[in-house]
Design goal:
single chain, seven-stranded mixed β-sheet, 12 helices, 10 strands
């Protein structure tokens, strides 16, 4: 039995010295000192040995067990230090290398991008960008735009009035800036006015808050043909060089004559039929898509700023208003206006 114990000591000592990883050392600990190890079994069977062998065998087995425990502990310290050194070498950071570029915090919302695009188009045509207040006076929002008290268009707008100030409201269109701009600038004037507007409406194609772009041009000799040419240039920049526009008679209180403006469908090229023979789902088979309302500035509107040189006998002008969400929906195939305001990153990140 003593010879077997000595053989186990020699075998375990050599194996521990040869271990190269902490996991190998742990396997050796289990093999030679674990519950099922041979040395552990010898110690448990001491009581079964003859009385004269119990002392020598027990003493030798305990001595070997302690030696092996010490060797394993020393080996563990050695291997841990070596493995730490190896990790430090492998994981070291070269501080002389340039840092990774920071991730962008975000990107422009699609509505902002569409607004900037339309502004750029109109600035290229010689227009200036103007902005006005979202909380507006009744005079600028209605009265000076040919909406006298009792005019049915006041109700059609479904306006948000300020309860404590009945003559103050959330503007229903960006048109009030027409009057504000003409009050401060003599003709000629060529401006576009982007901004938020508010109406009491909410569904897949309407929102209580949305964005509009107003255009105003006043000078000597402007005609409906100038309006059509301006809108044609804008539509081709937005929807493609082959687009055409058509004007349909309509009514707006602040323009006379007034027109609805359609652009030829860019999905079916104005045919109303898709290449496969199916009806175009975008223009509903009509070949035209309504995009905005426009018209020649009503002489009554110019009369409110006549003292600034806007004599309707000497100058004429045209105006138009389009929904920015409408343009973005058409350009990018977005079916529901409410997606712009849900803040769903799955939708927004498509336009980063």
């Amino acid at each position: 039995m003593l010879e077997r114990i000595e053989k186990l000591r020699a075998e375990a000592t050599a194996a521990i010295a040869a271990a190269s990883t902490s996991s190998e050392l742990e396997e050796l600990r289990v093999r030679y000192l674990g519950r099922k190890a041979e040395l552990t079994g010898i110690l448990r069977g001491i009581s079964e040995l003859p009385v004269e062998e119990r002392g020598p065998v027990g003493g030798a087995a305990n001595k070997v067990r302690k030696e092996l425990e010490a060797l394993i502990e020393q080996g563990g310290e050695r291997l841990d230090a070596a493995e730490l050194d190896a990790r430090l070498v492998a994981d070291r950071v070269d501080v002389t290398l340039p840092g990774a570029p920071p991730r962008l915090a975000g990107h422009q919302h699609l509505i902002t991008r569409t607004t900037r695009l339309i502004e750029d188009i109109m600035v290229g045509l010689g227009y200036e960008v103007a902005e006005g207040p979202e909380i507006e006076h009744d005079y600028y929002n209605f009265t000076a735009l040919n909406h006298p008290v009792g005019h049915p268009a006041r109700m059609l707008q479904d306006t948000f009035y300020i309860q404590s100030h009945p003559d103050v409201l959330l503007r229903t269109h960006t048109s009030p800036m027409q009057i504000r701009a003409m009050e401060t600038q003599r003709p000629p004037i060529f401006i576009v006015i982007p901004g938020k507007v508010y109406r009491r409406d909410s569904d897949a194609t309407h929102s209580p808050m949305f964005h509009q772009m107003e255009g105003l041009a006043v000078a000597e000799g402007l005609t409906l043909a100038d309006l059509q040419g301006t809108l044609l240039a804008m539509s081709r920049a937005l929807f493609g060089d082959t687009r055409e526009v058509r004007l349909r008679p309509h009514y707006f209180p602040f323009t006379e004559p007034s027109v609805e403006v359609d652009v030829s469908c860019f999905q079916c090229e104005g045919t109303g039929v898709l290449p496969g023979g199916e009806r175009c789902n975008l223009c509903k088979g009509q070949g035209w898509i309504e995009i905005l309302g426009a018209g020649m500035v009503d002489p009554n509107v110019l009369g409110f700023v006549k003292e600034m040189g806007y004599d309707p006998e000497k100058v004429s002008g045209f105006a138009y208003g389009l929904g920015i969400e409408r343009v973005a929906m058409l350009r990018h195939g977005i079916p529901d206006l409410r997606r712009f305001f849900d803040n769903d990153v799955r939708m927004l990140e498509q336009f980063s």
